[in-house]
Each structure stands twice: as structure tokens, then as C-alpha cells.
């Protein structure tokens, strides 16, 4: 188990983060949230007044912020130049801008370096969009989580409730738009790896998904 690498990909609202954290905690593995890294660099671009739709400006700045991810599944944190941005990276402004920033090849190259360095020793669950296809093609186990857009929107609204007033329909539209951008970009689009196991979580509880992933890991580890 010390060298195992578990890649969990899929769109948001499929239970990817909750599943990845629970699997890592149960198996005593580290956990890396690559979406949080793309959000962190996006937060930095917005904070520094960089136009996120100007790909050249984003590319020029891609190596400026120092991004450090904590890998404890019970308390994942992320800092930018020493500031904890775990809260600010979840705002609507960052969520709306992140697909544009993460489509820039220079940003991806930088993030992939950080992700491969974190996974080099193994013993980790890495969640994202392109982990099984591009970042860690030799991962021990690859999972691709899916769920219906309705189920995903309902889960995201549940998470946002109390933080922001957003309707279910607006949440659904935003999810579908972000998926289209993430799957349609040129560099390393969101995709299921040929050797990934697809798990449709629409009708499953979190416990069932976690159990299913742990069984797959134990078979291969
Ligand atoms: O997982 P989360 O919803 O926090 O990811 C935020 C965004 O980061 C995604 O919509 C996508 O644009 C980008 N991302 C990516 N590649 C990854 C993980 C996330 O492009 N491996």
C-alpha cells in the first residue's frame, strides 16, 4: 500500500473529493486535490488583476505564485505564497474563471510538475480531470466517476447552501458549462483513460462508492 497511486478523475458533483478523501483516510494514504491547485493559481491571477481571458498574460504569470498543497486527507490545505487560500478558492468568482486559466498550456505544465513531484513516492490518492490520462498514466488504479447532471447539481447546491444563494438550475447550467470547457480544451482535456474503471455514482451513497474504490485498490495493490 505504501507505493500505491490511485487516480480519481471525473467532473464536479460526482463525489470525487469526498470519495478521494475517505479512501485515502481509510487506507492510510496521502491525498492531493489537483482542482484546488488550479483554483489556487486562478485565485492568484484574479488577486493580481490579471485578465483570465488573456491567455498570453496568464501564461507569462504561470510560474510566479508559490503553490503548496497539504496532503493530509482529514485537513487538506493549500497555500499561495504562504497564505492559506482554502476558503477563497471556493468562491463563485474563482469557479467561473478556473476553466479559462486551466486551459492555458503553461499553467498545466506547471501544475503537472507539482502533481508528479507529490506522487513520486507513491502512497497517494490524486483527484482531478486528467490524472489517469496525462499526469500519472502508470497509476496503480484509475477510477472515472460520473453521475447525471441532475444528481451533480443537487449535490453542488447542497454544498453551496448557506454560502451563496444560487438556484438549482443556475448550478446545473454552470456545471454543464464548466464540463464542456474542461472536456473541450486542447491541452489534456478531461477524459476517461482507456484502462480506468467507470463508476456511475448517481444511485450510490458515498459509503458505497468508497467501498467500491477500496475493493478495486485492494485487488491491485
Ligand atoms: O475539482 P474542481 O471542481 O475543484 O476543479 C476546478 C477546475 O480545475 C476544473 O473545472 C478544471 O477546469 C480544473 N482542473 C483541471 N485539471 C485537473 C483538475 C482540475 O483542469 N486535473
UniProtKB/TrEMBL annotation:
Residues 176-185 have a biased composition (Basic and acidic residues). It is found in: Cytoplasm. It comes from Streptomyces thermolineatus. Residues 176-195 are annotated as: Disordered. Keywords: ATP-binding, Cytoplasm, Kinase, Nucleotide-binding, Transferase. The lineage of its organism: Bacteria, Bacillati, Actinomycetota, Actinomycetes, Kitasatosporales. InterPro entries: Cytidylate_kin, Cytidylate_kinase_dom, P-loop_NTPase. This is Cytidylate kinase. HAMAP family: Cytidyl_kinase_type1. Its EC number is 2.7.4.25. Its main location: cytoplasm.
